[in-house]
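Dear colleagues,

As part of the handover before I leave the project, I'm documenting each prediction I ran so the next person doesn't have to rerun anything. This entry is a single chain, and its sequence is reproduced below.
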Amino acid sequence: MTVLVAVDEPRGSALAADLEREGVAVVDVIPASALAAVAADGLHGLDADRVADAVHAADTVVLQADRSTLTASAVALCDRCGVRILPLAKDAADSRLVETFGLAGPWPLEIEPWRLVDAIAGAAAPAEALEERRDGSRPGPRHPRLIAVWGPAGGPGRTTIAIELAVELARGGRHVGLVDADTHAPSMALQLGLADEGPGFAAACRQAELGGLDSRELTRISSPLGRTGVDVLTGINRPSRWPELSDGRVAAALAVCREWADYTVVDVAAPLERDEEIVSDLDGPRRNAATLAALRSADLVVAVAAADPVGIARFLRAHAELRATIGSTPVAVLANRLRPGTLGLDARGQVRRTLDRFAGIRDLWFVPTDARSTDAAILAARPVAEIAPKSPLTLAVRRFAGEAVAPPPDVAEAPRRGIRSSASRAA
């Protein structure tokens, strides 16, 4: 699918760059009024030829709609060329104009790139659906909003995967919440260089129990992770504080997180034992309540396995218990720290065949080990994606996020055509 961006600068170029990062082919960027001028035969010469060629090469025109740009002749020109108009409106008057032409939408001019991609693919709601409904709720994306990252004992890299996954999901202007709900060995604040003495997820849980937690409060008590678009709710700073993360509190806090962020990634501990089976006080707090509550609340569970013989054996033993805990919730399995040294030849094939044979797992993603990049990230207390954007680890997590967690709409990678691509080749 190819797109012509008819939006005034500087918004037009920024929008085109965002679309190309999301995998959409942009044929050209033209002034918002150029389409109407060509349709009314008010533009001549090379500029008119450029606009006409771009319209014929495009499948969709993203148009900044107002009385000077959205005209009957412009709509007729697009109809003759078989081009769909996706209108972007700045205010209520522009929205009413779009409605008079019977076009779908409109969408807001400052729409997030990922929502615009969904709109181009015909899967997004128009502008009014992006606003809060009368009851205060917001329509959610068609992707999972709450993602729990779990892995068996032995340090398979749960926290690192959770951080990198959150950073990748935040690309394109999405708001992502990153929660450390580990009650055994919380380490997210230490790994990211964030203060862990102040409010965090424990404070959110207390507020949720009292009924005072909302999106504004979550923004206040969270810690922004640089300019990534990720807000972090740090974990407890001492493992002895685990009673603060009770089942009801965690479930209530994560329910508010669904409305606070486009995606919420939750890092949980490994143990899945139900403590009431081994203690006499059935009403007492449970050490693993936070993990169990997060897994049951999740729309998707990312199960991380260390890609070595010991790690795969541990994962297989714990996988059945994970399935018994979450029921029918989808699970995406990620084999982390893949390296040939511990598995010999065809490391991927050995891991894949083992998980298929003993657990029936056929859909599997791999993340290679990259000690140099992870060491540099820990030294700088930043995500690997910021320190080493070309790292094999970063690229593998990006692929995993795009395929297993938030797959883009079915937008074909059409070749760049028209004026924009020709100019790029000439440069």
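The longest strand covers residues 331-338. The first helix runs from residue 11 to 21.

All the best with the project,
I.
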